[in-house]
Amino acid sequence: MKSLATKFNIYKDYSIDLIKLSGPILAGNLANMLISVGDVVVAGRHSTVTLGAISVATAIFMTFMIAAAGLMASISPVVSNLRGERKTTKTLFRATVKYSLIIGLLFFLIIRLAINYVNLIGLAPDLYPLVIEYLDISSWGMFGGLLFLALKEFLQAYEIVNFPNFVVVAEIFLNLFLNVALVFGMWGFPELGVKGLAIASLIVRTLGGIALLIYCIPFLKGHSKRTKTYIKELLKTGWPISFALFFEFLGFNITAVLVGKFSSMLAAAHNIIITITSLTYMFPMSVSNAMAIKVGFANGEKNMTDIKRYSLAGIYLSVIFMALNALAYIFFPEFLLSLFTNDKNVILTALPVINIVLCYLFFDGIQCCCVGSLKGLKDTKPIMFTMAISYLLIGIPTGCILAFKFNIVLIGFWSGLALALFTACIISSTILLFRIKQMQKISACHKP
């Protein structure tokens, strides 16, 4: 048996390895998130109706965007596995670009179709036309957005993260400039309100994709004979991730839409809470991305020791971070909320939800890291079923019962989300543990 000190040193090394990779990924994710934060801050300063409108509109748009991003998320673990098997992968770049554009076209058409049915949601009258306007313009940003994500994933498999992060940082400032100029009508631009937010989003997503494509020109030199096999593997690994993310964000976004049915005030408060928790979520998500790469490479090498240790090290990191992060939510909740709105009523509406958010984030961090390891193992179907059960069968029904039957609206919906994440945490950690033990038995049987 290894001593406690020896185990600590072992996992310390693996944790440092994950931090080195996840640090730049975190910087990029935070920068990307700050683009959305900029939208929320500008919208909140414009009006409560504008803030409520983009809360609902982005909830609908991001449901599809995230599902499409799930299909892109298979790129880094698949390429990492191939690299672990010592196979040539740079020649797969062209196939990656084609893959992103095809998926982009598919989801663009889906959003255009969905616009025709937004009226069935029954939004508040002041929100409906603004939501339609935002979706109509933003749908065109699907191509550039997915191209950027695909190339970012491809480079990430090689642990190349600095330039994509630079692009995202540049997008923050461009997005903020365009938001202020187009929403408020500054520097000679007309005041466009929600429409301005949508135009800014379209421009930023498109330019980001083009910038990364130009950077990746050296990869265009080679062709691969394994293009069809590669794309099939991307789809095989990616579609369960896509559905898993779809179910997860569907849970959040159905909640956002349902909250919007009650009032603009509740929709605004919900949007601010989502923004704050999303910022916190960036750390475990970045560690999860790093785990998918490291576990994927180890899986390609058939290295069971690294698979297990990277998996546990990532979970430990997430638990420690969430415990430390809870202090900010406990001692400075009003300050955190005031960063996004000056409306005291919105702050008072959101404040009671903070305690529930603490539980939600803790469970979310653990399940996110478990998902990262399962991606690296290319064992993604359990992720899909876990999210479907957690959100569609438990989280959303619980929230609806509390909100519509007992009139506990914001607290009710967030209680449902917390319960969904608790369920996902239990199921995903159990699946990962079983999968590792199963692989250890198979590995032991093949040893001479």
From TrEMBL:
Topology within the bilayer: Multi-pass membrane protein
Keywords from the UniProt entry: Antiport, Cell membrane, Ion transport, Membrane, Transmembrane, Transmembrane helix, Transport
Origin species: Candidatus Galligastranaerophilus intestinavium
Record keyword Secreted present: no
TM stretches of this protein: 21-43, 49-75, 96-115, 127-151, 163-187, 199-220, 241-260, 272-292, 313-332, 344-363, 383-404, 410-434
Name this polypeptide is given: Multidrug-efflux transporter
Gene Ontology CC, one term: plasma membrane
Gene Ontology MF term list: antiporter activity; xenobiotic transmembrane transporter activity
Subcellular localization(s) per the UniProt record: Cell membrane
Pfam families in alphabetical order: MatE (PF01554)
Example GO biological process: monoatomic ion transport
Keyword Acetylation found: no
Taxonomic lineage from the root: Bacteria, Candidatus Galligastranaerophilus
